[in-house]
Amino acid sequence: MPRWKIEKVWEGQRCFIIGGGPSLTNFNWNLLHSENTIGCNTAFTLGEQVCKVCIFGDARWWNTYQFELAKFKGTVFTNSPQLLNSKIPWLWTMPRESNGLHTEALGWNGNTGASAINLALLFGVKQIYLLGYDMKRTEVQSNWHNRILDDRTVRPSVYNEFAKQFRYVHFHWKRKFADIEIFNVTKDSGLSQEIFPWVDPDSIWPGNYKVFV
């Protein structure tokens, strides 16, 4: 597809972004069926009922998953520089900026999770809820899925670098998109509450719903 022209397709609505953190290992994905969702990278394997939009930015990930991703029935975005001028009919492309948040491009900030936030803002949402933005691993796993390219590379220093990059995201959020609310849905994240305020998962889906199954 051609480069995406900015369109506020979710204007005034809320959006959930699916990150990769291990806190989502037992998450009840059914809770997202009626929500606007953007899934980072391998979240597309959950199917389009859960992951309405998939975004990726890493060329190595693309080389591994492109043929499986082609079967995904949701919408796919990338800000990978290698794919900016591609003519793949099901792939929407956006220019990449190194850091921060932008109105005509997607800020990279070293990770797909930050680019997903930028995309949600361009969709015109009013609230963004971040799922799986753990910025740390457990003793046994780094992600909620087992489709890691090389789990040995996910070292504590990687998360520290991610957290540093999110300071650029916070800076631009407060100056360019201050009327938009962004919450980290977590009980314990390596991403400081000074970056995004935390909100308990149980407060998002109150009542008889089980957030984790």
N-to-C SSE series? Answer: EEEHEEEEHEHEEH
The number of distinct structural domains comes to: 1
Q: Any idea what the CATH architecture is?
A: Alpha-Beta Complex
Number of helices: 4
The protein's oligomeric status is: single chain
| Share of residues in strands | 15-25%
What topology does this entry show?
Elements: E1 14-18, E2 36-40, E3 53-56, H1 59-69, E4 75-78, E5 91-93, E6 96-97, E7 106-107, H2 112-122, E8 127-131, H3 156-176, E9 181-185, E10 198-199, H4 201-204
Properties at a glance:
sialyltransferase cstii, chain A
Structure overview:
The chain has 213 residues and is an alpha/beta fold. The protein has one domain: sialyltransferase cstii, chain A (Alpha-Beta Complex). Helix content is 22%, strand content 17%. It has helices at residues 59-69, 112-122, 156-176, 201-204; strands at residues 14-18, 36-40, 53-56, 75-78, 91-93, 96-97, 106-107, 127-131, 181-185, 198-199. The strands form two sheets. An eight-stranded parallel β-sheet has the order 5-4-3-2-1-8-9-10, sandwiched between helices. A two-stranded parallel ribbon has the order 6-7. The radius of gyration is 16 Å and the shape is globular. The mean pLDDT is 91.
Brief summary of the model shown:
The protein is of the alpha/beta class. It is 22% helix and 17% strand.
